[in-house]
Amino acid sequence: EHPACAQSNSSTSGGSDSSPRSALLFEACVGTTMYGCQVLPMHQIKVDFAEAVVSWANHSVQLQCGATHFVVVKATSCAGLERTVVSAGAKLCCDGPSGGSARLVDASGEALRYVTNETEAYVEWAGFVEPCSGVASYAVALSESSSGAEVWQSAALASNVSSLRLPAPVLAGLAHGSSYVAEVSATSDAGLVGEAAVKDRKSTRLN
Predict the structure, then answer these.
(1) C-alpha to C-alpha distance for 30 and 142, rounded to whole angstroms
(2) Is the whole-model pTM more than 0.90?
């Protein structure tokens, strides 16, 4: 007898779920093409309708980095009628953006090694690569070179932004003669982060 039919008959005789859903056998698989089962073959799954949970217990799913995956679910009735549905594809990205570089420059684009509280200092960055989902945003942070303590961080910046001026109040608040690290982090659409840093000395000119 069909397992779902057996469950349905048991439920009718005093089981906990006598709804039509209990007379359905559910199977699922995972593939890298629509309706494909290349990653995890079709197998019976347990569906808890009260909790809206599907159990994947006792199955090890080895997803492939960089591949788009689909979940296929098939429901079969006691009469042997079937309906199969497939999820939208979800791409697995395993690494954050890489290859980036950053530098500290003045208003004319010349590299800076020392700045004062009157310097127009900009952080520029380039070269971040993320072939899986693409770069979604950037952020710039400034921290003490010796302790690593963060002293300032920008808001998220759009992916088409490639430079940011350091706010004058931030420069004015840095300690005379101390070294700081300007760090640019790139976040991918998958939420993974890559970083590039430039170390520069900040020397405040006292008026």
Answers:
(1) 44
(2) no
Res 181 pLDDT > 50: yes
What is the rounded distance in angstroms from the CA atom of residue 57 to the CA atom of residue 23? Answer: 21
**AA letter at 28:** A
Q: Is the pLDDT of residue 156 over 80?
A: yes
Q: How many Cβ atoms are within 10 Å of 42's Cβ, its own excluded?
A: 15
Q: Is the pLDDT of residue 197 over 90?
A: no
pLDDT of residue 50: 66
Using alpha carbons, select from 179, 185, 123 the residue that is nearest to residue 151: 179
Which residue in this structure is represented by tokens 């840095």? 174
Residue 170 DSSP code: H
Decide if 6 contacts 15 (C-beta within 8 A): no
Beta-ladder partners of 154:
none
Q: Whose structure tokens read 């004058």?
A: 168
* pLDDT for residue 42 is more than 60: yes
> Diameter of the chain by CA atoms?
92
C-alpha span between 202 and 111 (Å, rounded): 13
